[in-house]
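Tutorial, part two.
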Amino acid sequence: MNATQVKAMKKAFIARMLFAIAEIEDMGGFLPSVLIAQAAIESNWGRSTLSAKYNNFFGIKAGKSWKGRTVNMKTGEVFNGKNVTISSNFRVYDSLTDSIRDRNRLLRTARYKTVEPAATPRAQAQAIKDSGYCTATNYVESIMATIGANNLTQYDH
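Running the prediction step on this input gives:
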């Protein structure tokens, strides 16, 4: 993919995300910039198998409480400073909108209680990381770089 194609692909992904966000009844305090950047990172701009085939745009795993469909896939994690590949069960959704709704539900649980009230993109990204959402050491910086490179804060109104 050349630079023009990459730019068009990202623009289409952002438009798709904005359309889905508009369908969400209650975005509450969740900032669209963080949500879009998180989805872009977790789904490789919607090109990962998990997102393209199973509508899981946030890499949300299926814990014991999950009653919906699942798919087992390999995933990269960081444990004790080392990159490892493991197999995990992930949640399967019917649509991108369902994926966003479930992401927001998850981030409203007690474990993530500091995310929604955080007032800035960096504060929300840091709260997501600090609450244990991911193991990547550079997660906050990746979210912030994605937000900056794509001017995503323009959608935080």
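The beta strands are 70-79, 82-91. In part three we will examine how such features are distributed along the chain.
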